[in-house]
UniProtKB/TrEMBL annotation, chain B:
Key words, A-Z: ATP-binding, Nucleotide-binding, Transport
Any one GO MF annotation of this record: ATP binding
Transmembrane parts of this sequence: none
Keyword Metal-binding: no
Keyword Nucleus (UniProt): no
Residue runs in coiled coils: none
Organism of provenance: Streptomyces humidus
Superkingdom classification of source: Bacteria
Annotated ABC transporter domain residues: 12-236
Protein name listed in UniProt: ABC transporter ATP-binding protein
Amino acid sequence: MSTFTSPPTDGKIRTANRTMNGTMNATTNGPRHGARNATTAQTTRRPRLSGMTWLVWRQHRAAFWTMLAATVVSVAWIVYQRGQMTDFLDAYGFPAKNLDDAEKEFEPYIGAFSSVTTGLTAIPVILGVLLGAPLLAGDLENGTAKLIAAQSVSRNRWLATKLALTGLVVTVTTVTLSAVFAWWWSPIKLHYVDIDWTSREFFNTTGPVPVALSLLSVFGGVLIGVIVRRTLAAMVVTLGFTVALQMVWGYFKLSLGDIVTATTKPVSPGTPITFPSSVPRTAHAFDASYVSGSGKLFDLTTCTDTPAEEATTSCMKKADIVGASIDYIPISQMSSMQWFGASILFALTAGIVAFLFFWGRKRLV
Amino acid sequence: MSDVMYAGEPALEAHGLGMRYRRGWALRDCTFRLPAGRVCGLVGPNGAGKTTLLNIAAHVLKPTQGSLSLFGEAPGSVESGRRTAFLAQEKPLFRRFTVAETLRLGRELNPGWDQRAAEDIVRAGNVPFHAKIGTLSGGQRTRVAVALAFGKRPDLLLLDEPMSDLDPVVRHELMGTLLAEAGERGTTVVMSTHVLAELENVCDFLVVVSGGGVRLAGDVDDLMTVHTLITGVREGEGLPAALGYHTLVEARTSGRQFTALVRPEGPVTGPWEVAAPSMEELLLAYLRSPDAPPLITPTAQVQGQASGTGTVAA
Amino acid sequence: MGEVVAVEYRIDRRSGVPAFQQIVQQTKQALRLGVLVPGDRLPTAKDVAEKSAVNPNTTLKAYRELEREGLVEPRPGQGTFVRRTLGRPETGTDSPLYGELVAWMSKAAAAGLEQEDVAALVASALEKQYATGTTAVTGATTTRSTGE
């Protein structure tokens, strides 16, 4: 019925075992594994994260390190490419010699741009889907949100730390890439005409635009994650959201600028029409039109019904076309357009963050 | 640990607590009081509102009606957040964290963290500290989750089906650890389960919820004392008329014999065999008879609660 | 007496006997058999909880019962210690009474009695001799638990 044991010995042996295990753990497994030792080792190695910051960094460190590493690799590649390009330009005799004449020889260097810009323009979508969507959806799906809620920290602090740390890494990454890419492009920006500065490859990858687009995509993804509460579904919806954002942005970005119109001096109707020459070479030009004596605009297809020159001339005369005009946006507006657009995106992002705090917080378990 | 089972400071008090989901009421008019220092079994069939009740206490859900207080504070308050630990049914942990990192999580996020207590619980199960959570067995993972909950040094520990996915050996071992730790610190424990055998010898306080409401609440000793199991020979249809004098919880007949669980309102006299029910018999009787009058003993009553909802005769 | 010895309780969850009574019974049995002697420390409520998953309050309640019967005494900060033994010369396996019982058993076996028959005989003889029933060995009795 009863068995004989002697607790002091038993107890001592157990305690001894415990301490032995403890020390053995510490010595054999090294400082990485013992919880307490890990702390001291890390203090000496690098500034130690603590509290919520440590948790968020630890949870998402794979994503954060990947982003930072990818940034470093991209920067190295861009530095290398820019070196190649400037070497060529020096050998070519730029800027004394016009780049337009280089044509074929300069093509590989332009090709290098397009491979990088493809990646850069995809960044907001990639970050939104892979970082933003799972950021909270993962915790909601796995129940780890409940785990955090059971600790002695407020939900606000958890949410704030998550958003702040993610926002910081996204900002560091995109600011760096934006700056380095702009630096690569800067020598030829005002001299090379085959690059349209309003194209997504250049407009969306320089200045504040990549930062703003990425932040909106990521925090939009976070909000979608909180609504959907399933990682995979959130990623799919976020993919749709970020692609739509790119489309809407592409559609509206030109309306951010002030359109400048260049018009030729009026000539007498019937004489051949020349086009305005005051349009800068690097400007983004819209459609050109004919202008009548009364200032009315005509399509360039006017009087092209007949191939006969006689008929065309008389047609033009009849229509009282005295000149031509071109609408364009000069590259000098690029920066102000980018900042204007980015500030709208930043405002939307701030709205999403505010919404996450006021509404999403309640759903964070 | 207090030697006396006093009915001192309440660890948890529910006042007319109700929770309604889209599909209907999960909990309704739930009122009881849990004195501090008890190990309380929260019993009920699946879907009876046990998880809902615990989630409200853990500030995961907001009740539709009524209120709940932990040591006199609302569940969301800083104070009650610090004093309460909650182990959700699915025992969520970060799968990619190591055991050591999981304990560090507890240390980083809880001011009163007890690293030694947490490490001891982990070590007692021989769980390696450098192992990733995702590679652990169900029992080991539960142990780490329990360690995380205990390391917080809570005054109130809320456990939702803590042992549901464990084999009997691990279950016994973990329950032992849990009781020893709770006993040493005087931690109040609320443990939900639908496995009645899990509660025998473990709980000294019971709360039975069924059909959304509280059916039975009180110290186990009190509850056992006021119930009697009567076995006898049937006289015609139904129960002997003499039994009508007592409060009937459940009656069952088989052949010529009847068995009745009653709350005697006086001496039970008759040609019957009278015995004390086991905890399992008592719980089963209440769970099987949703119409039986609920019983909330004085220690489990909220101040000012209408004693009409079942007072102890003795 | 300096040596501290403990028993390990074996709590049977299926027996229907409350754990508190099982602890009381097993302690008394150990005292009777001389497994526990005065000066021995009983396992702490924490030890019992760890080994047998019994609520510490249950163990303490059992110890209070033993204390009330004067068998053990709590020493603050040290634990619960055995005060006196239940063992008597007559209860040892070397006592003449034990010898007589063994002899009787072999007679019963020779008469073809099964173990259950013997147990029933012993039980009814016990009942007759100790009918007042000061100790309820099995089953929870309503009279007992009303005490506290």
